[in-house]
Amino acid sequence: MTKEEFNEKMRQRTKKLAVDVIIFLSGLAPHKAMRVLDYQLTKAVTSVAANYRAACRARSQAEFHAKMSIVVEEADESLFWLEMIEDLNIDKSPQLKYLQNEGLEVLKICSKARSNS
């Protein structure tokens, strides 16, 4: 797989994660904490996709590293909000587990890419 193919695959993967999270959130039952969780998680997970896309267009290694640092931070924050949904017993479905696993995989891949830059 070429670098360009890998980047395209990851652009699609991070965007799919964002879409999947938003769809998941729209299906959750109302809960007092959900306003904050919904907003924060949506903001973080869409930032992962947007900043990965920007990293692929970086004009320098320094810019790539900076954008990937944001991706890693936002991916970790997304995992935090998904854990909060589970810890508050708002949801414990297989879909939540899938999102947590996918978020962790994206985090690991992006952390490795950042450390190699």
Protein architecture, described:
The protein is mostly helical and 117 residues long. It has four helices and no strands. It has helices at residues 3-26, 34-56, 61-87, 94-115. Helix 1 (3-26) runs antiparallel to helix 4. The longest helix has 27 residues, at 61-87. The two termini are 19 Å apart. The model has no long low-confidence stretch (mean pLDDT 95).
Describe how the helices and strands are arranged.
Layout: H1 3-26, H2 34-56, H3 61-87, H4 94-115
Helix pairs in contact: 1-2, 1-4, 2-3, 3-4
Outline:
This protein is mainly alpha-helical and 117 residues long. 82% of the residues lie in helices and 0% in strands.
List keywords for this structure.
mainly alpha, 117 residues, elongated
Alpha-carbon distance between the two ends: 19 Å
- Order of SSEs, N→C? HHHH
β-strand number: 0
Unreliable runs, pLDDT <50, ≥5 residues? none
Largest sheet: none
- By DSSP (H or I, 4+ residues per run), the number of helices equals 4
* Overall geometric form: elongated
Class based on secondary structure composition and strand pairing: mainly alpha
